[in-house]
Structure formats: C-alpha cells, structure tokens
Amino acid sequence: MDTVVRTEGLTKDYGSVLALDDLSLEIGPGITGLVGANGAGKSTLIKILLGLLTPTRGAATVLGHDIARASAEIRTEVGYLPEHDCLPPDVSASDFVVHLAMMSGLPRVAARERAAEVLRHVGLAEERYRPMGGYSTGMKQRAKLAQALAHDPRLVLLDEPTNGLDPAARDDMLGLVQRIGEDFGIAVIVTSHLLGELERVSDHVVILDGGKLLRASRTDEFLDATGTLLVEVLGDDAQARMAAALAEAGVMTQARGGLIALEPPNPAADRSGVPDLHDLVRDTAADLGLGLVRIQADHRRIEDVFHDAPADVTAEVARG
Fold first, then answer.
1. Which helix (H) or strand (E) holds 204?
2. Within a domain: 155
3. What is the CATH number of the domain that holds 17?
4. Model pLDDT for residues 217-226, shown as the tens digit of each residue
5. pTM here?
C-alpha cells in the first residue's frame, strides 16, 4: 500500500465559503497529522473522502478506490471517528460497537468477539456494559475510537480525537493513536487544530490553511534545528545574571520559560578570536558560580510553518 489517499484539484465551494481550494496531495502509510486552525478544511476533506460530501470539482482516491464511484467500498475498508458527540446515551459501548461492526459486514458472533477486543484495547473493558450517557468525555472518545476499529479497517480517519479532553486524557488518546499506527499497522489520518500536539505521534504532517495546502512533509523535516541554543542554569537569580553576562559578551538572548534562548551568531560577522558559543556558556556559568544544567539545540515547531510558509509548497507527503 504505497498511496493511501490522493487528491487532485479537490474543491468544495459552499458559495459563501470556499472550504477546500484546489487541493492536490498524496498521503502514504503510517500516521499522518492533518493540522490547521478551525475552518481550515480538515473535516470537509475527511467527509469528502468518506463519500459523505460531494466535491464541487476535483477527484480523489482512498486505498485505490475512486470516491465518485466506490464510496461504499471505501467505507468497508475505512474506520471513522467523527468530531462531534454522536453516541446514543441509553446504549452500552458493547452493544454500540457490536451494532456498527455488523453494519460493516461482520457476522454477529464475530462482531461480539471483535467488540470485546477493541474495547479492551481502548481501555473500556470494565465499562463496556454501562450506558454511554454516563461516560466522561474521554470515555466517549474511546468508545468512538473502538467502533472505528471494529471491522479491522486498513485506514482510520480520526477527526479531532482529543477535542474536549484534559491534558492527561489527551496524552492517553495520542498514545492510542500511536499504537494503532505502529503496533496494529493501520494507516491513520488524524486531525487537530492544536498544531503542536501531533508532533509526537505523526510520521507525516499535512497543514491546511483556508482550504489550501500550506505544506506537507515528514514530521522530522518540520522540526529541524533552528541554530538557537537553549540554556538552563541554576543558582540565585541565575537566568538574569547569565543573560546579562552573555549580553556583555555580545550574545543576543531572550527568556524562554525557565530557559535562556541564545540567538545564533551572524555567519557574516568576523568571529576570529571569539570563543565557541558552547564554550562561552560553560565558562560564563563557571565564572558566575552557576550550575549549568543543559545546553541543547532549539527545534522548529509545526506552528512556525505559518510564519515562514514557503511560496512553493510541496504537494506530496514524503514517505520514509
């Protein structure tokens, strides 16, 4: 499976809103983060890929199936976690997952076995017979994830799976997403408007902005080193004293939480006789009697793409 999703000039025009604007991209296996602000076109794209919306123009394939002619086949091979709460409150998670597994074509006995398995994987084994109306937000998201996996799909589309979750539950959900992609070998496309939270789990990232493709590439290509060094020191008024001493030595600094960010030297400047930045930091900390905890390279974040997006974005997600 070399290509999971391919779109060519995909456009969705509602008249007053252009939700997708001539979107052409290719997504391969692994975990792909589909990120962008609310209204960027993420949910619209997923619904078009599932055959739930008809594009104004353009074409797309999912797992080799044309969305215009094979939407039923696509839905048999794809699991979908919708963004909004759509769970019947008086139904147990077990009955819900069994029902949807049968709708996907599994016989009743196989559906019950599969429901028990996926509910255990998502951490709802002990709660599976409770009505879902009494579930917390995190439990409801897990139930939605379970039904998306019930029919053993080749691809899962997860629309804002961390929406409404507290930080601990968000981390748990991202851990489940990572497990689906890495341990189960299922291709995953996961959306989020929180641009930084998918860095940990995504192999590739697609960034949409106003319905357009802003950038698509491997995650590690977003996170290259910036040239800035981050320094942590301990001692009385350590950060201020260290920053002042480095400023006297001609190093530009700024506070970054509990760290000091050191701007990289100008490559055009005459650096003859000037000590290496690492050596300068070490010697300055020693002279001030401060404990030097760490010096580390600063890395770009996915958010940085919005500040310096290339004019000529690449339209294909790099594959391994």
1. strand 204-209
2. yes
3. 3.40.50.300
4. 888 776 655 5
5. 0.73
